[in-house]
Amino acid sequence: MTAPLDSLLADADLCVKCGLCSPHCPTYRQTSDENESPRGRIALIQGWAAGRLPLTAALREPLDDCLLCRNCEAVCPAKVPYGNLMDRFRAETGQRQKSLAARAMSSALRKALRSPALSSLGRRALDAAAQLPGGSAWKHLPPAGNPEDWYGDHPAAGESLSHVGLFLGCTAAVADAATVSAILELLPRLGVSVTVPKNQACCGAMDLHAGDAATAHGLMSRNIEAFAGQPLDAVIGFASGCSATLMEYRHPADTAGAESLSAKVQDIGRFLAERIPAERWALAPLRARILVHNPCSLRNVCKSEGKVEVLLGRIPEAEVITLPGKGRCCGAAGSYMIEHRRMAEAIRTETVEAILAAAPDYLVTSNIGCALHLRAGLQGRADIPVIHPVQLLARLQRV
Ligand code: SF4
Ligand code: SF4
């Protein structure tokens, strides 16, 4: 056995098969199939790494059905590093035994989102994807942004409390320009200087999860370089899926650079809740019921659950509530909602019903993928704005 498979097996062997994770797994909850549970998936990886099970389409399918939500990891008493285990399995096996359609879809999406012509080619690709089964999340995208308008320095108004770098990610220009504008408006007003490095790239999550480690490492190198050498107190992410990936960068050829960037990364909700003193906030009252969705990446990797509630709790007269169903995944999981449409929509149903039951005036979520998926699920059922919490704060901040 090769060394990488040895270490894969060693981590998989940490699983004591207690099954405590199964009720927290969205695919197991849908299927009641052991192969679609964390324990079952780990057993499949063990069988393959030990040479007992060949890599067939039948073995691959339940492993590819995993959303990498990491709900299992969060509750595992044996501390199985499930996310890393699955990424390494996928890196070892690449695209082998995947259908041609699945490979083409995954590759087209990743290439389109990484294109320098994000606002044109990327949107055209997503429009095309929206016409395919499973593409509904990408319909009715908000107006695109132009990253050229965002790059550079955005100094604090008055005394600077802090200097941060802003990580954009590949979906910002295509689908979340309003959040970038809100951040660049709000943070300088709160006394935070923001630098948006031009040579940054996609975080690499989609490549990593698709088993394309070489491309992911290339993107990591660009981001390590883009944010290095600047006196930044933090690197802020506003899509928790990207923040989670940046926080766990592992680069075989640049361990120190990866660790240095990861150590600085924070999700914007945590940064604002912990670093901006109360006296800097001057929020206008808002008589509204605001429902907070905490994405899996925000809970399980960024460990920032509850920070958005603290922040929004500063809004006078607002009623801030957390979406019930602690630990529930919405089914988005980046490109999963397109590549595994049926499962993604089935998983979303429970979350959409919980949102409708809560009847909020706003739904806020810190991950653009979740926002797109939930907007699509609410379409035709309720007219609830689904926005990033910073958009609400920027609208209400009076100074
Ligand atoms: S990461 Fe999520 S979907 Fe995958 S096995 Fe764990 S709980 Fe299930
Ligand atoms: S909770 Fe951990 S040890 Fe128990 S079955 Fe799940 S992954 Fe294995």
Question: Per DSSP, what share of the residues sits in E-state strands of 2 or more residues?
Answer: 5-15%
Please state the overall shape, judged from the principal axes of the Cα atoms.
Answer: globular
Sheet having the most strands: 5 strands, mixed
Q: What is the level 1 CATH name of the largest domain?
A: Alpha Beta
Q: Helix segment count?
A: 21
Number of domains: 4
Helix content: 40-55%
Topology, number of strands: 9
Q: State the CATH architecture of the largest domain.
A: 3-Layer(aba) Sandwich
Average pLDDT reading:
91
Strand order of the largest sheet: 1-3-2-4-5
Stated plainly, the CATH topology of the largest domain is called Rossmann fold
Radius of gyration: 21 Å
**What small molecules accompany the polymer chains?**
iron/sulfur cluster
SSE order, as H and E?
HHHHHHHHEEHHEHHEHHEHEHHEHHEHEH
CA-CA gap between termini: 62 Å
Quickly give the structural class: alpha/beta
Function: Component of a complex that catalyzes the oxidation of glycolate to glyoxylate.
Catalytic activity: glycolate + A = glyoxylate + AH2; (R)-lactate + A = pyruvate + AH2
Protein name: Glycolate oxidase iron-sulfur subunit
Enzyme class: oxidoreductase
